[in-house]
Amino acid sequence: MSMEINSLGPVLGAEVVGVDVRDLSADGFKAIHQAHLEHCVIVLRDQHLTPEEHIAFSRRFGDLDFQVLDQYSLPEHREILVLSNKAEDGKPLGLPDGGRRWHTDMSYNEIPPLGSLLYGLEIPPEGGQTKFANMYAAYDALDDETKQRIDGLRAVHDYVHHYKDADAKSGGKRAKMTEEQMASLKPAVHPVVRTHPETGRKALYVDQGHTIAIEGMADADAHVLITSLYEHAIQPQFTYTHTWRRFDVVFWDNRCVLHQAQPYDQTKYIRHMHRTTVKGTRPV
Ligand code: OGA
Ligand code: MN
Fold first, then answer.
1. Whether this model's pTM surpasses 0.90
2. Which ligand is nearest to the CA of 131?
């Protein structure tokens, strides 16, 4: 079967079928890379990967990042973060409630990731979709006055703040961060509008999960601006909702999309996923 790329929606998302990423030619890789740049989110259907194979495919796009919270990484493969509501002997196997706010992964790092590859091993029959918002389209649709106002602004992205909030919402069930983990998590400052290093297009780079302040702006004003920007960006005309099939590998571009996990009934269903994260470059 030859590789096919089918768009999944008008604004972002494409599926790639007829390919086994374990065995990808240089041309096949080029086509997937192009599709990723063009569609921002690609869904590689029907992949059967060991953790090693998942890591090897991810590494074709660059070096991998490690999660600060290694409580939820695979012990043998720290490059893989587990998102799961499964437990073994009462111990959670993964992060049970990750990504519930609109966010771009690890934007609290000075060098945030290029993209993430999430592999669906067990999928609930209802709920548990992932939503994506196209931040190029969201930026393009702003009026000129807003574009002028935000071009050149720099925002503060923080994880500890977000983590404590998510932990409180989960009733204190998240793994406690060690002092060392907290100390390594200094907030980072990034442009509110970034230029994608490969496509050259401008994209909004603020989110609900991590963006907590804007340099030189009073907190209350910054909060209003940040909220209005991401609420603008997550309107239906800029988004795609991915309904998972088992063995999908979904590869999103963290430089130009936000994403959000949808809830599902954790008392009835299992959702079990592995994620790798490819290193990026400093946002400019
Ligand atoms: C992630 C994430 C969303 C989901 O893995 O970074 O936000 O739907 N996942 O699980
Ligand atoms: Mn995420």
1. yes
2. 1
